[in-house]
Write a structure and sequence with these properties.
The protein is α+β, with helices and mostly antiparallel strands and 546 residues long. It has three domains: 194 residues, Beta-Lactamase, CATH 3.30.450; 152 residues, Beta-Lactamase, CATH 3.30.450.40; 154 residues, 2-Layer Sandwich (Alpha-Beta Plaits), CATH 3.30.70.270. 47% of the residues lie in helices and 21% in strands. Helix 3 packs antiparallel against helix 4, helix 6 runs antiparallel to helix 7 and helix 12 packs antiparallel against helix 14.
Amino acid sequence: MLEPSLKQKLDLGNITLDNFLEEFDRVEVERLLYTLSSLYDIGEEITSNEAPDIKSSMERLLHMTKGTIACTKAAVLIYAKYKYALQSVAVRGMDGNFYLRLDPKEISLWAEAKHPLTLDEIAEKLPAFYKTHADNLRQIGVNLLVPLIVKGNLVGCMLIGDKLNKELYKATDLILLSMIARQVSIDIYKFILMDDLKQTSDKLRKQKAELVEANMGVQKMSEISMRFISILDENKLFHAILDEMLASTSASKGVILKVDHAQDSLSVMCCKNTEPFAQRNLLPYRSYEALAKTIESGEPHICMLEEGRIWQVEARYALFVPIQNKQIGEDSYVSYILAVFDKEKRGGGYLTFNERDEAILVSFANYASILIENVRNYELATKDSMTHLYVRRFFDQRLIDQIDKSGQFNKVFSLLIMDIDHFKNVNDTWGHPVGDQVIKLVAATIQRNIRTEIDIPARYGGEEFTILMPEADSEKAMMVAERIRSAVEKTDVSHLISGRNITVSIGVAMFPAHGTQPKTLMEAADIALYRSKGAGRNRVTLSEDA
């Protein structure tokens, strides 16, 4: 059963960052991270084997699901489309196997389910299924049914029993359950494609995505999957996608664009072999017919550029392929455009693109939408929504990991703790919205003055920040700390407050000289921070000087 408030409040098809964080407190983020990690392992198992064992993988998934949402029983069923039936592939806590026949006229209704369904909701949304199977589902103790949908098609469902101790399902349970269902839908779909590949190449040629696997081979697709699934940085991901696009189609140049439907414009996520685009520049697209059709219809288009140019891209031929939003319960819309230009011809010159090129990018776009969502989920779990720095729990774990690694290899690293000076006065005098803007400015200054992809900055408290600097000694850390302090002091905040600058006080500690445990190292840096404040603020202090 669900908490009474969820029947009116929760719409799993419209999860936003704000309502996500409202439902997930700091303790339950651990459940989220465990879920994401387990889903990655199971997805890797499916894609890395040419002959995946779907039963074993789904049994592992059910074990993880029972632990994650604390349910008493669960089952995964795969849809046999030629039999119009759901057949069990893995069952935990329930007796026997399942073979649930479906009404062919009702198949399309399954894809409209926006969240896990209670038996009462099944009666309303899937009346034929409910009439046939309600008594059996009640008898075996099914509490929730979760349709598994990929690209608008039914691939199976999950059956979920009561929670342990007969507790009610909470919003966070349903969010996690929907995340699990989304990934298991994808895993089942991949398994079906691989299984079809073994049985007959004719079936592969009926779908564009299957054609790509037939041409490139399962091993190649698995290699791409393994290489991309571990990328959790958005910028890196888009550049990797673009490189694969160009290599797969022999295109000479390419761009990935984000669609802004509200402003009828596009923004460039990354580009290659083109003239540079202005950062955050909004590009109109209505005057380019093929591109406009791609965005409006969600269908790919091959075209010739009559003027030989589109924005900063000089080209004769273009292929536009959409990446569509795939979140459960949301209407599908085009969120990104993959654009490649001028296919290179052997011996020189360029060719127009063909159906095979289109099929390759369509298949890749479908996979890219999954990768982008993985990055989004990772960001939700690890990044502070206001500053885009890491959250405290993530930082604490990385500190533990860094101590273990540095101790093992006899390396040093440094830790910085900083605090915005007189921040309470900012809030009291100019209000919390201005205070939030000050926090954002300081966070942005930190990001600009540290080593990208090496140092680990975090928002540790309200106006307190920490930075982990692997393999940086105290001298290097002091230089970086002073650079940040100076940059913050010089930041123009006249548009926010008047009569003063914003400053920070910073404390620095180094492993192992100032501590060999997380607590002692944090305390050493914190003492140095308070020494900076006691000496007049707006300064940097090293722990050994404290």
